[in-house]
Write a structure and sequence with these properties.
The complex is a heterodimer of chains A (113) and B (115).
Chain A lengths: L4 E3 L2 E4 L5 E6 L6 E7 L6 E7 L2 E5 L7 E4 L6 E5 L8 E8 L7 E2 L3 E5 L1
Parallel strand pairs in A: 2-11
Antiparallel strand pairs in A: 1-3, 3-8, 4-5, 4-9, 5-6, 7-8, 9-10, 9-11
Chain B lengths: L2 E3 L4 E5 L4 E3 L2 E3 L5 E8 L6 E7 L7 E2 L2 E6 L4 E6 L8 E9 L7 E2 L3 E6 L1
Parallel strand pairs in B: 2-12
Antiparallel strand pairs in B: 1-4, 3-9, 5-6, 5-10, 7-8, 8-9, 10-11, 10-12
Classes of the chains: A mainly beta (113), B mainly beta (115).
């Protein structure tokens, strides 16, 4: 399978714990995006990488959130001191430099209890 | 500011009928792209179709076509000969080319196909 992959698919954690998600983009895609989707809403942009450089961050990305793409390939999204409001689906997408469409992974569903 | 509006929270359609999902958008950027994505219950966002703001013809991809009316700022999705497998959430989205990154999504329309 050469699509975007995300791990884990599901994560249940207690409030206050840290969690980390991983995204592996389509191999030839230089651009990588993180989105968050809550129930009944469309995805909301969180952050964007071109290669290893993080070029844009949404105001939704509080200081408890950090994303990295150290070698320009896979990316990680870490949430520190999780809160119940962080419960959502976290989607990763990738695109080619000159591509229009973004291809999404299956998402990681986070539940904070 | 950019905005996508989908006014149909849910729709029911008989199998084999055509269906139109409405989408209007707002942007001050002269160059932009419009997208439709399908999200089945499994959660994965599936890219369906793309329309560039300078494209002269409406985009088509198999049973999907995008009815692009630039003056009205609308980008409706038309699905011909609907199938049971078309039941899903459908999201209209836009990317302004002044912002090379993020896609702005609408709130979605839940389409249910009746056998």
């Amino acid at each position: 399978d050469t699509g975007v992959s995300q791990n884990p698919r599901h994560k249940i954690t207690k409030r206050g714990q840290n969690v980390t998600f991983r995204c592996d983009p389509i191999s030839e895609h230089n651009r990588l995006y993180w989105y968050r989707q809550t129930l009944g809403q469309g995805p909301e942009f969180l952050t964007y990488f071109q290669n290893e450089a993080q070029l844009e961050k949404s105001r939704l990305l509080s200081d408890r959130f950090s994303a990295e793409r150290p070698k320009g390939s896979f990316s990680t999204l870490e949430i520190q001191r999780t809160e119940q409001g962080d419960s959502a689906m976290y989607l990763c997408a990738s695109s080619a430099d000159r591509g229009n469409e973004q291809y999404f992974g299956p998402g990681t569903r986070l539940t904070v209890t | 500011a950019q905005k996508i509006t989908q006014t149909q929270p849910g729709m029911f359609v008989q199998e084999k009928e055509a269906v139109t999902l409405d989408c209007t958008y707002d942007t001050s950027d002269p160059s932009y792209g419009l997208f439709w994505y399908k999200q089945p219950s499994s959660g994965e966002m599936i890219f369906l179709i793309y329309q560039g703001s300078y494209d002269q013809q409406n985009a088509t991809e198999g049973r999907y076509s995008l009815n692009f009316q630039k003056a009205r700022k609308s980008a409706n999705l038309v699905i011909s000969a609907s199938q049971l497998g078309d039941s899903a959430m459908y999201f209209c989205a836009m990317r302004a080319y002044s912002s090379a990154s993020k896609i702005i999504f609408g709130s979605g329309t839940r389409l249910s196909i009746r056998p």
